[in-house]
Design a protein that fits this description.
Blueprint: H1 3-10, H2 24-29, H3 52-62, H4 83-100, H5 103-116, H6 121-148, H7 161-187, H8 193-217, H9 221-248, H10 254-275, H11 289-302, H12 310-328
Helix pairs in contact: 3-6, 3-9, 4-6, 4-7, 4-11, 5-6, 6-9, 7-11, 8-9, 8-10, 8-12
Amino acid sequence: MTGAAGLAGKMTPAPPGSDQAPDPAKLLFGLEEPPPFPKDNIFPITWETETPRLLDFYEKGRDPGWSPATLPWDTLDPSAFTWDQRYALAYWFALLSVFDSSGPAVFARAMILTYETHEEDPIRKCFFSIVRDEVAHEEICQRAIAALTPGGPFGYEPETPLGRLAQNNARWYHHNGARYWEGFKKGISRHPLPILFTSFLMGEMASSTLFHWMHRTTTIPVFKEAFRRVGQDEARHMGICLTVLEKLLPKLADDQRASITKQIRAGYVFLSGILYEPPEQFWELPATWRPAHRLLEGTARAAGLGILSDEERRENWRTAFLKLKGLLEPHRIVFPAIPEIGIDGATVAFDPDDIIPVF
C-alpha cells in the first residue's frame, strides 16, 4: 500500500485514557530542562530594552523619507559632460562604493554579532536600520556609475587615457577593499562592542560632515539631493553610536581602553581612503595612483561635483577627531597622535593584526 492508505495502516491505536487532559502538577514531576545553549548562538532570543532612546532612533529610521529610486535622476544628462568628466564623476562614486558597498555586509555581520552576544533588542534593531540605509547609499553609487559609464565600473572600455587611469585606480581600490574585508571577517568576533562602536562612530562623524558639505557645494541636482539625504542618514547613525557608547564607555576595562586607542589610529588609516587621502600604512597603491587621482578629482570638481579641497578635507577630519577626543578622554581613554591632521596624542603603532578594520 502507498499514500494515505499505507500511512493509515501503520498507525497504532491511542493508549487507554489518552483522551483525558493531563494534570499539569503531575507533569511537573517529570519536567526536564533542555541542554545549555551553545556559546555565541542567537538563541534564546528575548526583547529586553535597557536604552529606550535607541528605540526612538529606530522609529525615526523606519521611514527615512526618501529612496534612491525617487531621486531626480532624470535631471542627470550624461551628454552634458565630456567623456573625461563622465569618467571622473563615475570614478569618484566608484571609490565611494568601496566604502558604501561594503557597508551593508559590514553592518549585517555586526547585526548578527549583536544577536549572538544577546545585546538588548534596540541595539539589534538599530543595526538592522543601518543595514537598510547602507543598501540605499550603495544604490546611489550604482545608479550614478550606470548613468555616466554604462557597464561601469569595470564592464566597459574607456575611450580616453584619463578614463583608463580611472578604471585602473578603481581596480586598485577594490583590491584594497578585498584586503580590508578579509581583516574584518577575522576581527569582528575578537573585539567587544565598545571597540566596534568607537570604530563605527569615527566613520559616521566624518561622513556626516562630509556629505553635508558636499550637499552645499555640489551643483549637479541629483547628487546635491543624494548627499543631503545620505547626510541625514549618517547623522542618525552617529546618534545611535553616541548613545551606545554613552552606556558602554563608563564600564570599560583598562585593556579595552588601550585597544580603543589603537583602534582610533587604525580608523584614521582606513577611513582616510575616502575622507582625506589614503595613508601608506594600509593602502597598497601603485606609483601612478595618486597623480591620476588628483587629475580625476580636479576634473570631477570642475564638472560640478562638490569635492572638498585637501585643506577642507583635512579640517573636516580634524573636526571629527576633536569631537571624538572630547567624548573619549573623560573616560580615561588615551587619544592617539594623528600628526597628519594636526592632532597631538600618544604615539601608536599601526598593527593590522591587533585591530579590526572598519570602513
